[in-house]
Specification:
Radius of gyration: 20 Å
Oligomer: single chain
Shape: elongated
Number of strands: 0
Distance between the termini: 78 Å
Length: 174
């Protein structure tokens, strides 16, 4: 009986250790989920007040944190891309400014890239809301999550172009 009890204790410790390893592996995902929830709550609160959130420093601080979390995940989970971690809020802000101010007639290609940047950001937010519903669907080896990998690849591809074209005054002049 004592031998069975020792084996049971061993298996309990083993399972507990595996759970800790999985939790640690998902820490970047959990961080992004938490920030996404903060962003969503902020948007709802401000919308009820009638505030335009896009220009809010607090809103942009949250979005910056979310993008930084995405970049951390990109480094470990984006096997199709370069795993860049240098993509910033400024790229999104430039894209949003272009969407607001540049017409299709002025430059369709520029607007298309700006919209891709915005869409990849929105798609990642949506993905993390999905993960929030059930974190267990996220493989702790982040590179094994196809939806995450595809979203990160699209993010990196569009944002890399945005960094090159929108943040360099020599290349792009609004």
């Amino acid at each position: 009986f004592e031998k069975v009890l020792n084996q049971l204790n061993y298996f309990q410790l083993y399972v507990f250790e595996l759970m800790l390893i999985e939790k640690d592996a998902r820490r970047f995902i959990n961080k992004a989920i938490d920030i996404e929830q903060e962003i969503k709550s902020f948007e709802i609160r401000e919308k009820l007040k009638g505030t335009i959130v896009i220009m809010s420093p607090a809103y942009n601080k949250l979005r910056k944190q979310f993008i930084e979390a995405i970049c951390q995940i990109n480094v470990v989970a984006n096997t199709a891309g370069k795993g860049r971690d240098d993509l910033t809020l400024e790229i999104l802000l430039a894209a949003e400014e272009i969407i607001r101010t540049v017409s299709n007639h002025k430059s369709l290609a520029v607007r298309k890239l700006a919209q891709q940047i915005k869409n990849t950001f929105d798609n990642l937010r949506h993905l993390f809301r999905k993960y929030c519903e059930n974190i267990e669907i996220v493989d702790p080896q982040l590179k094994n999550n196809n939806d995450l990998g595809e979203s990160l690849f699209a993010f990196e591809k569009a944002w890399d172009k945005g960094k090159t074209f929108f943040l360099s005054p020599k290349i792009y002049n609004m």
